[in-house]
């Protein structure tokens, strides 16, 4: 665990030691007997442990197949919690958690962490199930009675997993870039986990009931193929999403290479768009779409001659008209990507203005899609706070004041106010995106923000 900070090492130890204590009753001669003096079959433990490890190995052998590592086959673990005493049920998770590979260093610490959290979660689920009399309900195949006790056990399983993940977040546990309080982060993680774990719990209960039925363990295994099919469909969705994200990254990299002065601009506009969307209370799915809108807003620059994007001198009216075509070029490039949703409208309309002086169609007011109004503010803000070939970066307070001044005429006041609040809370630390030099000629670039500090931004033909 030498590659982990001391605090993380202590946290892993605080999870591992209680997990070992949960398994202590299984040690021959242990002074701690199994809860309730329950008996169990070691054969059942070995079968479930092998089944869990095998299913997880199969999941990991498929690229991008398990979006939540270590959680593809919770039904097997929960079936163990419904069938076995808590220590024996916890042991089911141990071989797979310790032996299966992990993706990042330090490998031993991550294996211990994965094993400890699963052992504690299964043990807690088993204890709750046993205390509620769930063992008798499963043994008698009493479905109504088993459902109630299983629900309490699943809730305990989910609580333990999310409480532990809240102290040592798993990759992808929380939305990227989110800065929220620890209780709010835990509550969000708990709500995200509860529905899928409940489905796994129902499948685990079905396995347990079939195991105790006259048909035996072979019948219980029949639950796994439908779960495997649903897991495969879920994995296909994530593969498709990963492919779209790779496409988006490739397009953005192409724009950055073509227009070196704005390298990194797209990612920062995506980040600012995401901050505005969250401040407005949009759901996570829409926040992600608006992040994509910000990232892709300038993809149409791929259709603009490079000499115009990198020209240091003033642009002629004809050159500005060519640059003004980039929203339409961008829309043509992304309109076939259904995954982007309303981001496509933002790509097309992010240079429209509330007073109707924008482009490409001169829309005004409510005619401009909300997504485009979000990106317009994010784009203008980053343009002002980044060094360009024709202007120096301005301090964040100056840029925000300029946005406020232009709110109502060029920018949606709601979007401006949301960005001001978000930056007031989280701050803004952009990387410098261009070399620090300006042309000798005047600033006639169309992507500046309107106002006395940057007079060219208010002109038609913005080049952001």
Describe the structure.
- It is a single chain.
- With 464 residues, the protein is an all-alpha fold.
- It folds into two domains: 6-234, no CATH class; 259-458, Hypothetical protein af1432, CATH 1.10.3210.10.
- The chain is 61% helix and 0% strand.
- It is built from 19 helices and no strands.
- The chain has helices at 6-23, 42-60, 74-83, 86-99, 107-131, 134-139, 143-167, 182-212, 217-220, 224-258, 265-279, 284-296, 306-309, 317-323, 326-334, 343-349, 370-385, 396-406, 413-426.
- The radius of gyration is 28 Å and the shape is elongated.
- The protein starts with 5 loop residues before the first helix and ends in a 38-residue tail after the last helix.
List keywords for this structure.
464 residues; mainly alpha; Hypothetical protein af1432; 2 domains; disordered C terminus; membrane; HD/PDEase_dom; hydrolase activity; HD_domain; HD_GYP_dom
**Element order: H for helix, E for strand:** HHHHHHHHHHHHHHHHHHH
**Average pLDDT figure:** 80
- Distance linking N and C termini: 47 Å
Number of helices: 19
Total domain count: 2
In which range does the helix fraction lie?
Answer: 55-70%
Q: What does the largest sheet look like?
A: none
Q: What is the number of beta strands?
A: 0
Show unreliable segments: 63-70, 169-179, 432-463
Shape: elongated
Secondary-structure-derived class = mainly alpha
Beta-strand percent range: under 5%
Integer-rounded radius of gyration: 28 Å
GO molecular function: hydrolase activity
Protein name: HD-GYP domain-containing protein
Keywords: Hydrolase, Membrane, Transmembrane, Transmembrane helix
Enzyme class: hydrolase
